[in-house]
Amino acid sequence: MFFELLKTAPGCKARLGRMTTTRGVIHTPVYMPVGTQGSVKALDPRELIEMGTEIILGNTYHLSIRPGMEIIGAAKGLHNFINWPHPILTDSGGFQVFSLAKIRKVLHHGVEFRSHLDGSLLFLGPKEAMDIQRQLGSDIAMVFDECPPHTATHREVQTAVERSLRWARECRLQPRAEGQFVFGIVQGGKFEDLRASCARELVDMDFDGYSIGGVSVGEPEPEMMKAVEFAEPHLPANKPRYAMGLGTPAQMVELVARGVDMFDCVLPTRVARNGTAYTRKGAVSIKGGFNKANFGPIEEGCDCFACRHFTRAYLRHLLNVNEILGLRMLSVHNSHMYIKLMADIRQHLQSGTFDEFRREFIAGFVPSRRILEARAAGVASDASLTP
Questions:
Q1: Which stretches of the chain score pLDDT less than 70?
Q2: Is residue 145 flagged as an active site residue?
């Protein structure tokens, strides 16, 4: 059995589960670090394993362009190429085609577009996306879909949903790598009727799991939550649900409560490169002047390598003089924080205390937006608003 639903939380839709693949067991809810081009930025496999990572992501679009399938094939698959022995989920590349391409032409059987590297003409469709993922040898592959912008009209989103469903049927028929599972992707933008109908049709196709796509693409957070809520009731309880591209720590806690099992997000390493750390109390700028002589860790009580060995003052110095170690250690801390948050959520689900944990976490987490707004208004200092 690929997915086992072990327990549900009273008072909400949070779920404790387990996925079993040929390369290992994945305990859910789970956060999956993003290794778009075959590497989780600034981290190595040893560090990821030590912090408890059970699965990472790769991307069909980027890996098929560089290093290319000839090289990955010669390496006998993506796992061997990047020296990662545990499960990998690969995105189909559909989002990158629609977000990165300078010129694209949507055709019945796929998308013709220009490479973001050299402008060369490329084509990607359901058959191509699934064939690349088969050659990559990922444990979980995603169908090829169309991700419309959040500003699209109902008619435009409906057209994209119809196309995505047609492509999903085609993806379902393609050959797979040995032991490879395939997830459908629910589209539908902000429209409840389209989310519901798309989810129902995908369930009829009997995929191994279901993703909620087209979220975190610029829409307001309440709209993002609604998109998940529109889709979730129509997804089967005995298969995993994956919210693509999400989110902040607080968003993940809230989405777990809405029945989501799997998450991926680039934020932990992306904000680290800008000198920001995530803590249980919110985002904090380590580069801020208030850390100049702060000889405490990034976060009290955190047992990641960065917090055990380095102070905020030292890390601030490294960031301000552009030393790579600084952004590496923030990447270690942020990724560890995300992985540990999911482990804590699973523990509270097991013990039946998730609802209390959720209330306390959300109450204590200060969104970075509020920090920035307060600074801009001059109503509070960095030191009073950061953990």
A1: 101, 368-387
A2: no
Examine the domain organization and report whether 320 and 187 are in the same domain: no
Catalytic residue among 139, 145, 261, 264: 264
Token digits for 111? 């998308």
Single out the residue in 207, 238, 265 at which a domain terminates: 265
Same structural domain, 250 and 277: no
Which residue in this structure is represented by tokens 């084509």?
123
**CA–CA gap between residue 153 and residue 190 (Å, rounded):** 9
- The total number of structural domains in the chain stands at 2
Domain enclosing residue 293, as ranges: 272-367
Query: Is residue 214 situated within a structural domain?
Result: yes
**Catalytic-labelled residue, pool 44, 91, 131, 303:** 91
| 91 flagged as catalytic | yes
Query: Are 207 and 294 part of one and the same domain?
Result: no
This prediction's pTM? 0.94
* DSSP codes joined into one string, 330-377: HHHHHHHHHHHHHHHHHHHHHHT-HHHHHHHHHHH-B-HHHHHHHHHH
Angle between helices 126-136 and 154-172 (to 10 degrees): 50
Q: What is the rounded CA–CA span in Å between residue 22 and residue 107?
A: 36
Q: Are residues 128 and 210 in the same domain?
A: yes
Q: What pLDDT is attached to residue 99?
A: 78
Which residue reads 């989405």 in tokens?
255
Query: Alpha carbon of 276 to those of 169, 203, 282: distances in Å?
Result: 42, 40, 10
The answer on 177 and 117 residing in a single domain is yes
- At position 231, the amino acid (one-letter code) is A
